Amino acid sequence: MQIKNTIVLLTALLAGSATARLHGHERRSHHEKREVAATATAESTATTTSSGFGGVTSPSGTGDTYCGNVGIPYGSNIIEITEDELDSYNWTVTLDGSFILQEYTAYFWNNCNEEGELAGFFDTTFPLTVTIGVGEKSYVAIDVDSQGAFVTSPTSVGVPRSTTDGIIMGFWGEFNIDTTINDGWSGFDVSALVALDNGKTDYPGLALTGDGQTSYITNSLGSAYNAYSETSEASTGGIGGNVVPGKLALTAYMAYNGQSI
Ligand SMILES: *[C@@H]1O[C@H](CO)[C@@H](O)[C@H](O)[C@H]1NC(C)=O
Asked: Is 104 in contact with 131 (CB distance < 8 Å)?
C-alpha cells in the first residue's frame, strides 16, 4: 500500500513538473488534457536502417505529454554523424564551438525515457553524448518524430543537475522534430525554465538557429530572444522556431553571449 502510494505520488510529481517545463510547438490548441504521463509504445521488431538510425516507435500521448519516436533500441533516434553526412539527413544539429574556451559536452535526451515516462530530463545515461573541441564543430542527426532536448556544459563540469531531485539544469535546447501529431511540423527553442525553477542561472549561453529563425539565451541569462527565459512563460506554447514540414538544419552555438551569428 505504501509503495503503491509512493509510486502514484512520484508519477504525479513527474507529470506535474514535466508539464510545467516542456514545450511542444503545435500550431493547434495547446490545452489538451495534461494529467496523464505519456507512455511510449515500443514495437517488437527492431531494425537498423542504412541511415544509422534504429527503428521508429509509435507516437503516444498528446500535448506536452507527447512522446513521439524514441528509437528501437531506445535512443537510436539521435546519432552523431560527420560533416560530410550532414546534407544527407533531414534533421540535423551542428554544435558550433566557436565561442567556447574549453572542451564542451552536449547531452541529448528524449522527453520520454526508456520506460515511457515523461522523465527523460532525469537521465543518467543518455541516448547521445557528443564532445565539441574549442573552435570545432560536431554534428548530430535526429530521426523522424523525435521530441527531446539537449544541454551543453564544459566537459570538466559535467551534466548540470539539481542537487534536490537530479533534474538536468542549464539552458536546454528543446526540439520537436517532424512531429506526427502536428502534421510534420518541427520546432525548437532555448529554455531556462528548469534553471529558474531551481534558482540557479549562471550557466553558459546557448543560441539555436535554423530556417532563418533564432532562439537564444546568453551567458548567465544576461539576455534572451524568442526563448523561455521567464517563469511567467512556462504555460506559453510556441515560443522559439516553428518550422513547416521538411528538412531542418539547426546550429547550436555554445557559450553564446550575443555575438553576431
Ligand atoms: C529524408 O526524408 C525523405 C522523405 O521523407 C526520406 O525518403 C529519406 O529517407 C529521409 N532521409 C533520411 C536519412 O532519413
From this structure: yes
